[in-house]
Amino acid sequence: MPTHAKPASLLSALRPRSQDRLYDFYRDLRNTDELFWDRHLNAWIATSHAVVSSTASDPRFSSVRYPDIEAVSEELRPLARVLSRQMLYSDAPDHARLRALLSRAFTPRAVAALRGRISDAVDRIITRAEPAGRLDIVADLARPLPLAVICDLLGVPEEDRPVLSSWSDPIAAAIGSSRLDADESRTASQSMAEMLAYLRELLTREDGPPAPHTLRALLATGTENPDQDFDELLANTALLLIAGHETTTHFIGNAALALLDHPRAAGQLRDRGDLIPAAVEELLRYDSPVQLLLRRARHDLDLAGRSIAAGQAVLLVCGAANRDPAAFPDPDVLDFERPGGRHIAFGYGPHFCLGAALARLEGAVVLEALLTRLPDWKLDGAAPRWQNSLNFRGLTGLDIAFTPSPAPSQEPYAGPVDRIL
After folding, report:
1. Backbone φ/ψ region at 68: left (φ over 0), alpha (ψ -120 to 50), beta
2. b/e string for 122-133 if b means 16 or more Cβ within 10 A?
3. Is 250 strand, coil or helix?
4. How far is CA 326 from CA 48, 51, 71, 303, in A?
5. DSSP 327-389
6. How confident is the model at residue 182 (pLDDT cuts 50, 70, 90)?
7. What is the pTM of this model?
8. How far apart are CA 15 and CA 354, in angstroms?
9. 234 FRET partner, CA 20 to 30 A, in 167, 331, 347, 408?
């Protein structure tokens, strides 16, 4: 039951000791109050599953992140203008229109068609690591794999993919931070400008029609529509590129760490491959890569017994909602046979993650490969460290060790990971 004592600021989650015990910190916040005003963030903080899920889909709230661009710092303003054109930060009817265009690349049939290529990519990464008996799951697997998948869908040439990743990192850091200094804001804005310039050239390149299965093919049809704003199209292509690999990277790393911390659960999953789809959902609930959603009140309203003023922000703490015992009994237990309950790792309502099916597929393929190919894997070296972000939860690295296998008589793959797909 809420104690109504003065809650701590959500900013405390950025402290290293809070990152290591993040869900204990969330529990303390939720037990104190499921909805409270955080004067340090100038926002309401929602921590219960009931409030988070209902607010995420409540039409009384807006998803617009920057209602007044001119109020943003001069260094961050160029990035804010681009983000304001993305469907993630748009409301109806713009959100539905943009989502309808891009969703054709993420139909169940389109995603299922990628399974073989993703499986081959993961197998080759593990095969290259087997002779050494060591692997950094984040750097060697979780980061390059989703990047390669989304770049393949966009038709990005192999040689251009590293620079796209280098642009994506500071943008994602800016999205995930509540407080940026001038240099960080300037770097994020410049990175976005360079990414958009590249995507503009990519989508207007006259070197033959794109392959029909690629997202680039769908986007190319959008450029031929006079009612479609090309800058808007570019902004949302950038969103897919950034979100398409950043969050899946974090999910794979977080899931692997959870299995390392719960060897009995890992053993159960190894013995029962039929549990992998359920395990993907439970691992997403247990340690979600996206921790926050932002909504703004369209007008004065009441929420969970509080008076919310028009324009005030409400930060929906998905990580806290996913560990709410009112929705998930024994929430700190990793249970692959957990009945019912709907996690909020992919959001909720109209803004439910467009790439959820693809992220689930990549996660399932990676889990199956790790558990079957590396049965004795264990943590190697120093304890893993978390990225410093309120919005995203992900590891900077995750080194594992396992029994080495002899190198194959013929190396099946010798190029960079990006060439796998």
Report:
1. beta
2. bbbbbbbbbeeb
3. helix
4. 8, 12, 39, 18
5. TSSSTTS--TT--S----TT--GGG--TTHHHHHHHHHHHHHHHHHH-TT-EE-SSPP-B-S-
6. very high
7. 0.91
8. 31
9. 347
Any residues with CB less than 8 A from the CB of 36 and at least 6 apart, and which? 7, 29, 44, 45
Residue of 159, 160, 175, 315 whose CA lies nearest to 242: 175
Average pLDDT over residues 346-350: 91
Pairing of strands 61-62, 43-46: unpaired
The two tokens of residue 293 are 């959603």
* E strand or H helix that includes residue 193: helix 182-203
- How are strands ordered across the β-sheet holding 399-401? 134-136, 399-401, 378-379
Q: Regarding beta strands 61-62 and 292-297, do their DSSP bridges make them parallel or antiparallel, or are they unpaired?
A: antiparallel
Burial of 411 (0-12, 13-18, 19+ CB in 10 A): exposed
Yes or no: say if 38 and 47 are a contact pair by the CB < 8 Å rule.
no
DSSP state, residue 185: H
Q: Classify domain 10-419 at the CATH topology level.
A: Cytochrome p450 (1.10.630)
The enclosing H or E element of 400 equals strand 399-401
- What is the Cα–Cα distance from 146 to 244, expressed in whole angstroms? 7
Within 8 A by CB and 6+ apart from 332, the residues are: 23, 323
> Between vectors from CA 239 to CA 364 and to CA 113, what angle results, nearest 5°?
35
Q: What is the CA radius of gyration of the chain?
A: 21
**CB atoms closer than 10 angstroms to residue 109:** 6
Dihedral sign of CA atoms 322, 326, 332, 336 in order: negative
Torsion angle of the four alpha carbons 348, 352, 355, 358, in this order, in degrees rounded to the nearest 10? 40
- The 10s digit of each residue's pLDDT in 37-82 is 999 999 999 999 999 999 999 999 999 999 999 999 999 999 999 9
Cis peptide before 93 (omega within 30 of 0): yes
Note whether 87 and 114 are within 8 A (CB): no
- What band does 196 get if pLDDT is binned at 50, 70 and 90? very high
- Ordered by start, the domain boundaries in the chain are 10-419
